[in-house]
Amino acid sequence: MSRSLYLALPILLILAGCAGQDTRDTSYPSWPEHRSALQQLEHWTARGKLALRSSERAETATLLWQQQGLSTELHLSGPMGVSATTITSDGQQMEIRQGDEFKTFDISTPDAIALNTGWDLPLHALLYWLKGIPVPESPVQLLELDPDRDLLRKLRQNGWEIHYEQYEQFKNLTLPTRLRIQRGSTSARMIIHDWQAQPS
To answer: What domain range includes position 109?
Structure first.
């Protein structure tokens, strides 16, 4: 073995070892950075579709979600039972309106949405899950990240399991465009066509 090759061999071995240690694309923000940015995103609009399924029925609806701080306005419209449903909340009270009928509840009222629409949807938690982060004040049973991009791939929280199937870039934020949530026989698949983030 020549002297130059003998000297170069340890360097090549070190470089080879370093190459196999971390394959994550460092051009993307880390999970803590990504989560922090989305926690600060308080004013946004999401448009897409919602498919709901239980052991008894299945329905689809178009979805328009507008969030302004603690104020939520969710419009669901479709050809079946979820048509012309508007759910609004100011963080304390929640109103469910269907046609000319509406009812108001304290936001802590258990199963308010399920009792009035027939569907069990965790509105307060969806505010965070839709953005691709856990609910900050609730325990997390499982949190699984994509090893390449440090984005949420699977979450189990509040008895629900959330699977993130696709993300897209919207300006400087990476946000979910396909996700599925499930608890027992109830599942909801959400496809988001457009995200609009507004300045706080």
So the answer is: 32-197
pLDDT in tens, 6-53: 444 444 444 444 444 445 455 678 999 999 999 999 999 999 999 989
Cα-based torsion angle of the residue sequence 144, 49, 37, 88 in order, rounded to the nearest 10 degrees: -120
How many other C-beta atoms can be found within 10 angstroms of the C-beta atom of residue 54? 15
Percent of the chain with pLDDT over 90: 48
Rounded to an integer, what distance in angstroms lies between the CA atom of residue 20 and that of residue 64? 44
DSSP state of 6: H
Hey, what are 108's tokens? 């802590």
Examine residue 27 and state whether it is found in any structural domain, yes or no: no
Is residue 4 included in any domain, yes or no? no
pTM value? 0.81
